[in-house]
Sequence to fold (302 residues):
Amino acid sequence: MKFGTYVFEPEKAEGFDFHLLRIKTEVGKRIPPQPDMHSNIAVFADNVAARGNTGWTSQSPLGPARMGNNNYNIYWDTVCATQPEHRAEQLNYIEDIDKHSPGVWLNSFYFADHGHCTCSRCQELWKKSGLSWVEWHKKEITDYISQVRDRVKKELILCIQPDPVSSLERYGVDFDELAKYADAFNVVMFSKNYATPWYWEMLSRNFKKLLKKPMYISLYVFGPGDDPKDVPTPSELLTVSVRCARAGIDGILYLTGDAGQIGDFQKEAVGKVELRERLKSYGGQPVQEVLDLVKGWEKIVQ
Ligand SMILES: [Zn+2]
Fold:
């Protein structure tokens, strides 16, 4: 297994195999890529592009993909996935970023959610295609990712929603089609707590069965602006890491705002001596790899 940090600031915490930097987040903010950190880009979720261009926001019978539309689990504004200028600009951007960092990890490269997008361009494209609504969604997203693949010469990782069953209908995401282009998948399993690790372990098993490429999962540690009372405990994070590891995943990323918050997590995890001992009985080699990772942090946090 490989272990990475997933951060908003260009800082590398010690004790991990690699680092993923959020160089373009869903709010549309961009920061420069780093030569020794992988680049994470949100493609269609982009407040800057959606708010700066009339008619670009994805539409649906339940309203637009806009922050505040509580019909959807969307905390930002999302551009229609067929918007040609945004598509072209993002392709060029992704190609440039690939040249300046070791790999590109894409978020939000798909339709906003179920019922999207019903803008006049999408209606017209769908009718012209002669395909069913779902098949047309799949084609639009798969074709776009094939264009991305032509531009990305290094590693391309596709970050997907933690929905093993309905991702095709909701987002146009077909795991088998996308596996032809992706080097790996990253299942984003962010939660403000992992009090019931059973569910996350089950999701890991579901995805491991479905995905035809290696898969990472991403766990939430401490987001920018979070209250320490509202984030997962180190014990929850250790336990869920071990339980997902034994489901056969290929790696785990830990999300924080910056490297200092990763350091805080490492220190607290190292301090959970009894739990670390107990978790040894939770499985075989993959469990041991998580526990060895934490053991390796002992030297760093002293
Ligand atoms: Zn549209």
In short: The chain is about 40% helix and 15% strand. The chain has a mean pLDDT of 97. The domain at 2-301 is CATH 3.20.20.80 (TIM Barrel). The CA atoms of residues 64 and 212 lie 33 Å apart.
